[in-house]
Amino acid sequence: MMFLATHRDMVADEQLPGVLDTLHKRLREILLPQFREQLIYCDTERDDFVFTLNAAKPEKEDRECAEIIRECLSRGGEGGREVKVPLRWYALYQKLLEVANELGKKVLPRELCQQVAESMEMDDESCGEALNFFDGLNMLFYFPDILPQLVFMEPQMLLDKVSELVEETYHMRQGKKAVPGEKLRFRDHGEVTEKFLGEFESHYEPPLFTPKELVTLLKGLLVFAEMSKDVYFMPCLLQVVAWKVVEEHRVSGGKALALHFPDSGPLMGTFCSTVAYLLSPENSHPCPWRVVQNEAGAPECLHRNVIEFTVSDYAGAVSLIDHFTHFELHIHTAEDHEAELWKLAHDAVFAGLKKAGKTIGYTNNTPVPAIVCPAHPHPAKPHPATVKKGVWTCSISSKNFGKVAEVSVPWMSVCTSHSAESATSSPSSSSSAVPSTSQPPLSVSSTTATTTTNTPGESFLA
Ligand SMILES: [Zn+2]
Fold it and tell me: In what ranges is there compositional bias, type Low complexity (predicted)?
């Protein structure tokens, strides 16, 4: 994990040390111990990890800093891998930008891109490869599996649509915006209707790109799950609830399946996409998942960090919890159904995680089945303990370990395909204290490199 501060030009030289101290202090406070181990330091003696860079008008030291960053990234493997591509791909990209500009469009038909490519003596296949390449660099967006007919020349426009929905729920909850009756389910349960999407008129480019295409796209990207005709559920709109509420949906006694992400914690979007996968009727997991509802048809427990499901026709419920450092699966049912339900829930959740990772484009975010650490019971925040050869090891302190037989783990014998016995990750060696923040910040778990825009009233390096 690397922190970059890219507005050095906005801080007077003599103030820089003070601003950096404040920034380091605040970041150290909010960084969970798990993530501290992965920090890339710019000054190990001083424990400094914020790389300052004036990217707008780089001077000598900025260029040196950029070179160090480049080296760090290439050591990290994939990030700095050199890829050789034909020069004319860049020419094609430039040409497409020009065409879009001339037409005043942010979206181009794929067919038109092909015509441009042909004029440069590129065949359809190379055109597709070039589009995929630039999509990978986020210079444009192209989704051949979901919306093969369109190329988005301005990636920001798509990101804006999603963030606008998030913003809207935020303002509604803050009371800054009136909530008409038909939008209560949007604010409280993350439900979006096609009519509602139509209100963001300025963002569409009919007839090429309308709310219909947006829905297809967001369903394909596991941002939406279709609940009924023209009604979509968007898990990332939900509100995070306090630990007290989460705790009510956990089963005590270490019976849960913890999903431990040894490399970096769960990356951003993984939980929401997995939920969208589980609730999408078109997915082929073995049985339908639904959100548990009360008699009035309202969800019993539907929050950004804890959701209660029913699985197939089984009596009982499955809670899926996002602790931001790891996930947990808890099953509430009579003992005679337990084994069967564990198998179904386990298989579906792993299928969802796999699909979510693939859809978001993460190559290195596979969880390992683990147990909830028995060494640090309540009131500590739960965290995983990895299991290997019948021994569990706390993921926070390897000094804490014990035999698995000492805790009852109902899923382990049932879920053979992902038995924790096959887990290969080594336990973490940190001796830091148990995390004590009640709501770990979202951004920390997802960051590989951070560049954040200015927030009034805060340090503008942050
Ligand atoms: Zn522990």
Answer: 420-455
